[in-house]
Amino acid sequence: MTTLEFHSFLRSCLKKDEKLEEFILRCEYVSGQYEGTQGFTDLSIKLKQLEIENSINNRVFYFAIPPSIFIPVACAINNCARSQNGWTRVVVEKPFGRDLESAQQLSRQLATSFREEELFRIDHYLGKEMVQNLMVFRFSNSIFEPLWNRHHVKCVLITFKEDIGTDGRGGYFDNYGIIRDVMQNHILQIMALVAMEPPISSAARDVRDEKVKLLRSVAQLKLEDVVVGQYGPSKDQTKKGYLDDPTVPRGSITPTFATAVLHVNNARWAGTPFILKCGKALNERKAEVRIQFHAPATQLFTNQPQNELVIRVQPNEAIYWKFVSKKPGLSCDLEQTELDLTYHSRFEIKGGLPDAYERLILDVTRGDHNLFVRDDELEVAWQIFTPLLKQLEQKRIQPIIYEFGGRGPSESDLLLQKYNYSRNLDYSWRGDKK
Q: Which pTM value belongs to this model?
């Protein structure tokens, strides 16, 4: 592909904008091989030609490449394509290893080419608006801190649901599974922000220190606190099951669904279960945090639903507090309703919210690590899940088959009931209907 052909490709992909042509003319295409150093030497020569008028030249390298070549590419950039009079930064996409050992090895090998402050391990979920708002919501509103503990919170449910299957990506997905692909990173990062102690400042180091402390307090996962599933065909047979994907190995037992209950052994959260739930080919697409509170000490009214704080990450970004109110009229019937902060209703958002990647790439250029995963944070996350993954694989635990388009295995609901999560079937959030 030539640069002109690349420009034509960009025009076919990008939305029309008054600055589109200006942007496209700043784009160049350089072809090369991953193996060896010649391709990266040629890249550096091209970059120097483009940088000739600049006194300071900064370079960002984004690793949207297979994990198997992270290290040779990092070494080649370090040896041949570093900036000589500015900073060099490297963005690494997940997966960051398959388990604790491989993640530690990857970190050690990357450290031979780049310092930790030059590495940006990107988890795009940390760039989402509502995930970013978690810290502001928690630490800028004094009403929540007295309630944010085991004395008031009964359980926390963090959910990530997709309504699509692997769609031809089964070969890639089968090497990792839903726990490695979603739970160990996206959902665990959200849990850390929900449960961590207040940092001494909003600086990246202080925030990440508190996240690491929290994750180190998580007890070892027990197999009886985990449910794994794999989607089969839909009830009407219009959607194929995971094993029907020709890219998936025959007889694969890789989970496409998982629910796990984590326990945090610290003074704030001891005894409060954190339930992580994620899956593909489910009945809807959404990601949210549900913080459910204990019932009042004295029950003056019968059949009283639980108070629940819901943070909707996507879609229809919102924060709403479910509480009980008397129905208007002569009776004393109760109804669960909500205090609702739906973003698109409350705020004037022109052009939509910034994409998570937009925000994160901007932070890379600023050198802000706040929304990126540090090496010790990655290591402790793998320490939580590696023993479980080994048990599942060594014991060849068979995933429970569930229907494409359903809610997942019924055993997951039973696990939630075991830890006292209450689901109010009579309540429906109006934001889903807007």
A: 0.90
